[in-house]
Design goal:
alpha+beta, Arc Repressor Mutant, subunit A, 2 domains, 14% strand
Length: 208
């Protein structure tokens, strides 16, 4: 790695600093004049390495890049603020089901949990910005399906859904009750691929 960053690195750096929200490789390439995606990825990799020991880090969350405070310095910038309402047990279970099975419908969530899910539970998760409607299932009734958001990944410090912990990891950390069948069922299947944020097979985006 050279001592001084190149022109493209500086351009990507400046763009991300000025951006109001995280940006994808495609968005960066387009903003910088239609550059090759591979060149932008290379510049991002170099910048990520340069900032690794700095007070701010360049990180990727769900395919979007942004700068954030280094984890070990976050306490220096933390201010007193209103505490976010703690999620209920039902909301925690529903969030886990959506994260590990997305996209899923309310009926599919209820099938996994074994109990009915109130609309209010989903509203709480959407108000928190962690869950969003992701289209409709092409089956009779065309039910709405739900998926997690980039804010969900950012809040829990995940680069992608592949970083979600497995059942054994959660139990070892004391976060999963050995007799909690609902939660274990919610996480029965490990995520094996990233959902396509632009399109969902056999589903279409909500238009109304």
């Amino acid at each position: 790695m050279s001592e001084e960053p190149g022109t493209l690195e500086r351009a990507v750096e400046a763009t991300l600093f000025a951006a109001e929200e995280p940006m994808t490789v495609e968005a960066l390439a387009g903003h910088l004049g239609g550059l090759a995606h591979g060149d932008v990825r290379e510049a991002l990799a170099l910048l990520e390495a340069r900032y690794r020991a700095r007070g701010v880090h360049l990180v990727e969350r769900g395919g979007r890049w942004h700068f954030e405070t280094a984890p070990d310095l976050a306490h220096l910038l933390r201010r007193e603020k209103e505490q976010v309402r703690r999620l209920s047990r039902a909301a925690t279970e529903v969030l886990a089901i959506i994260a590990y099975h997305e996209p899923v419908s309310r009926a599919e969530i209820e099938s996994i949990r074994g109990v009915q899910t109130s609309a209010g539970t989903l509203d709480v998760l959407m108000e928190a910005g962690w869950v969003k409607p992701a289209g409709r299932r092409e089956v009779p009734g065309r039910p709405v399906i739900y998926a997690t958001t980039p804010d969900f990944l950012d809040h829990f410090g995940l680069s992608s859904r592949r970083d979600l912990p497995g059942i054994d990891e959660l139990r070892a950390a004391g976060l999963l009750d050995p007799v909690d069948e609902a939660m274990e069922n919610a996480m029965r299947f490990e995520p094996d691929e990233e959902p396509d944020e632009d399109s969902t097979p056999d589903d279409e985006n909500l238009a109304d």
